[in-house]
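User: Here's a chain of 318 residues. Predict its fold as tokens.
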Amino acid sequence: MIFLSAALAFVVLPLAFSHPVEKRQNALPPVNSATDESVLQLALYLEHLEQSLYTGGYENFTDAQYTAAGFPPGFRENVGVIAQHEATHASTIATILSDAGYTPVPPCSYKFPDTDPKSFVDLANMITSVGIGAYLGGGSLLTDDPNLLTAASSILTVESRHDSYLRAGIGASPFPTSFDTALTAVFAYNLAQMFIDHCPQQLPITILPKLTFVGPMPAPNLQPPTPAGTTLKFTFDPSTFFVKVDPNAPLYIGMVNMITNVTFVETTSCGTGCVTAPVPEGAAGAAFAVLSTFGGGLNENQLSEFGTLAGPAEVVLS
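Assistant: Prediction complete.
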């Protein structure tokens, strides 16, 4: 019997070594620095926002309402799938942070202005563009572990697919630009604030004075794109500025868009707390406007750090 066992081992062991059983480990990437943690906390903050938005888009409107608004069959069901994706993104990021000993930022209470399927999709396009920009901007900071960058990038590509699907649903181009627009943490965080009702915990990121884009609003299906030279109107409260500004000093809109970084255009006053500015040549897709006393020479990081009087405000051009 011992001989037989030994003989079987002689036959089986070579087979085992020549055909090893693959063992897959679903180990999540580590968080190796305070920078990694800050990027992930902002990503989680935005994922919570998106999860709530898409859950509402699924639960608040019926299939019949989506169909009546002109959306294709199955659109509401796919909105529900997107909500599930956002929940998975949020839980995964929270687990990565928890495993590293950090407390994940909790969800906030939100206020969304959508009242029907069309306004929901318009809003989702805007908010998802902010999420895409945040992942693009944060990716360059994740330098401690390539696996963490890969994980973040894999979420970014899915977010882009979500946005393309939504845009196609309203008859817009699913890919309006050659490049997406990266956002700094300060700008992405501030863009999210207009949808926050209450947060049990905010992130340690500066909240800037508010800049409101008044119009004109884009075409219902974002076609044709808003052309260069179109006059855009913005409002703000000068009393909230962090610095004193000479009332006669020229003001500028810095338009953050694609990889051209920032294009500055001088504004025209339309009264106290009101300016207009033309759409810069070449601007398209989702652009992000800030009010500044600087007429050039600053990149997006510098605008975030010291060059912004108010903003940013998202302007969907195509």
